[in-house]
Amino acid sequence: MLMLSLEKPGGSVPKLQLSLTKGARFAVTVTWECEHAHLHDIDLHALEARNDGTGAKVDELSSILSTYNTRSMNPKGGALPTNADGSFETPSGGLRHSGDVRTQGSAETITIDGSRIAEGVNEIPIFVTIHSTAREVETFSEIEKATIAIVDDGGKELGSYVLSGEFKEFNVVQFGSLLLGDNGWEYAAVGRGFKGNFNDVLGHFS
Fold first, then answer.
1. Is the pLDDT of residue 45 over 70?
2. What are residue 15's DSSP bridge partners?
3. How many whole angstroms separate alpha carbon 155 and alpha carbon 148?
4. Rounded mean pLDDT of 138-146?
5. Beta bridge partners of 107
6. Potential cystine with 196: which of 17, 142, 171, 200 (Cβ 3.0-4.6 Å)?
7. CA angle, 200 then 148 then 45, to 5°
8. Separation in Å, CA 168 to CA 25, 138, 145
9. Could you tell me if 160 and 148 are in contact, meaning their C-beta atoms sit under 8 angstroms apart?
10. Which pLDDT value is given to residue 21?
């Protein structure tokens, strides 16, 4: 697997302080438009991870918020049940996915509820992936416009990328992470592109 850090030497990772008061919520949304809408699928993923200083790690399937980890898509191995409206969530309810969307002009959203994050979780890595039903390898260059953004419950945008421009040679991007520190939660932009699949990425977190 190839991995490229898009940080410039000497640069610092920008962090924004978030106020996770009781009931505060944050949403990560990906949208895309492409000429061949039904050949492409863009998906959002997030992890309820623990970081003891040696990197974020996940040791339970139920901590992986991903369409690939739902019982409806993976009846033999999926850990997360799917609701009637297509949404699914981690057992804590801290991470909720709006459901798999495969049509252009629509959006997939992960809602993060700070009041319900599982105890001991101090990092939430967020990813976006692309794959095609028509070919084995796909990158964001195949999409005319794909964007990802995180907003707070007041609608303020905390970070965003144009995936089809900034990460066009990749098929997986770690958008960023929510980090829990002494002063509460912070959003840290990562912007790291991968060539591989979601399981390749999970190898770095398990």
1. yes
2. 188
3. 14
4. 81
5. 31
6. 200
7. 35
8. 30, 10, 10
9. yes
10. 45
CA atoms within 13 A on the CB side of 160: 13
CA atoms within 13 A on the CB side of 88: 24
**Residue listed under structure tokens 């623990």:** 50
**pLDDT above 50 (res 54):** yes
Q: Is the per-residue pLDDT at 201 higher than 80?
A: yes
- The architecture that CATH gives domain 18-202 is Sandwich (2.60)
Which bin fits 116, alpha (ψ -120 to 50), beta or left (φ > 0)? alpha
Domain ranges of the chain: 18-202
**What CA–CA distances, in Å, run from 138 to 33, 38, 142, 179?**
15, 14, 7, 30
Structure pTM?
0.82
Q: Is 192 exposed, middle or buried (0-12, 13-18, 19+ CB in 10 A)?
A: buried
Q: What is the DSSP string of the chain?
A: -EEEE-PPTT----EEEE---TT-EEEEEEEEE-SSGGGEEEEEEEE-BEESSS-EE---GGGEE-GGGBTTT-TTT--BPPPTTS-EE-TTSSEEE-----STT-EEEEEEETTTPPTT--EEEEEEEEEESS-S---GGGSSEEEEEEEETT--EEEEEEHHHHTTT-SEEEEEEEEEETTEEEEEEEEEEEES-HHHHHTT--
What pLDDT is attached to residue 35? 64
